[in-house]
Amino acid sequence: MALRTYQSIAPKTGSGCYIDASSVIVGDVHLDDDASIWPLVAARGDVNRIRIGARTNIQDGTVLHVTRRSTQNPDGHPLVIGDDVTVGHKCMLHGCQLGNRILVGMGAIIMDGAIVEDDVFIGAGTLVPPNKRLESGFLYVGNPMQKKRPLKESEIAFLKQSAINYVQLKDEYLAQP
């Protein structure tokens, strides 16, 4: 079963969501309309909350988790992902905040307290250290990440198109008998 309750808190999904049966979605996880969760994704909203925006896709093998609340950090670090975000295969997002229209390249890691503004490309294999802020309109690459260059207009347009492509794909999956 992909959706699991933790301490009486069950995941919630908006309309038109797709969640692959091989994924595990636990606890305080909310998916907005048309979001998609692909094979082998693990999302554990056990010690804090996870929010996934509309038309956002989380691709195969990605791990989504949070940081618990503590005396030093009373709110902990929830994981908040905006609308129209594409998270590539085998990423790790831990207690960070992602805005809208972002592409997270395959194998990228984004750590606790990091904030990614709208309209950002994060290259494959990039490590975003804790508490970093990625400015809107740029490409970030490397380990640790570095601001590489401003995005081209065609790249900014692709951010939205990538999300649209995954909405179409999840609709095809949902239409199968």
TrEMBL record:
Q: Name the domain of life this protein comes from.
A: Bacteria
Spell out the Pfam families in the cross-references. Hexapep_2
Under the heading InterPro entries, the entry gives: Hexapep, LbH_gamma_CA-like, Transf_Hexapept/Carb_Anhydrase, Trimer_LpxA-like_sf
Gene3D superfamilies named among the record's database cross-references: Hexapeptide repeat proteins (2.160.10.10)
- Spell out the protein name for this chain: Gamma carbonic anhydrase family protein
Look up and give the organism this protein is from. Alteromonas profundi
